[in-house]
């Protein structure tokens, strides 16, 4: 959008929307550093969603928009935010095609699977 002259590079550079998906090892490190907790197991939860299904990208777009539209509108304005989300399906599809496989807490290399640690409290 900067290359098209629709948005200034300064406006893009001034925008910060931090998103962090910790790796399983990072989560384990934090949990085990607390002497009152330990990990009994890490479970996989399958949602049965196929990322290649026709409605998947649109559904993903709606979820991301619901979570981020307010901050985007405040920074870029409603018209640019609408344009960002009009372009989103193509951009996210390209991302899925080119991203490397990774496993993180709440995100794995398979879009239909989430990893969750099951904890117990040793203090009891």
From TrEMBL:
User: Which cofactors are named for this entry?
Assistant: Mg(2+)
Recorded hits in SUPFAM superfamilies, A to Z, give: S-adenosyl-L-methionine-dependent methyltransferases
In alphabetical order, the GO MF annotations are: metal ion binding; methyltransferase activity
Please give the pathway this protein is involved in.
Alkaloid biosynthesis
- Keywords annotated in UniProt: Magnesium, Metal-binding, Methyltransferase, Transferase
What biological process terms from GO does the record include?
Answer: methylation
The answer to whether the entry has keyword Transcription regulation is no
Q: Which Pfam families match?
A: Methyltransf_7
What PANTHER family does the database record attribute to this sequence? Answer: S-ADENOSYL-L-METHIONINE:CARBOXYL METHYLTRANSFERASE FAMILY PROTEIN
Q: Which family does it belong to?
A: Belongs to the methyltransferase superfamily. Type-7 methyltransferase family.
Q: What is this protein called?
A: Uncharacterized protein
């Amino acid at each position: 959008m900067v290359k098209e002259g629709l948005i200034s590079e300064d406006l893009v550079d001034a925008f910060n929307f931090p998103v962090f998906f910790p790796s399983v090892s990072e989560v384990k490190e934090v949990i085990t550093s607390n002497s009152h907790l330990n990990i009994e197991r890490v479970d996989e939860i399958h949602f049965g969603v196929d990322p290649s299904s026709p409605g998947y990208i649109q559904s993903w777009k709606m979820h991301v928009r619901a979570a981020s539209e307010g901050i985007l509108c405040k920074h870029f304005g409603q018209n640019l935010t609408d344009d960002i989300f009009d372009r989103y399906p193509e951009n996210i599809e390209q991302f899925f095609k080119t991203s490397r496989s990774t496993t993180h807490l709440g995100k794995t290399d398979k879009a239909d699977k989430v990893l969750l640690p099951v904890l117990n409290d040793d203090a009891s």
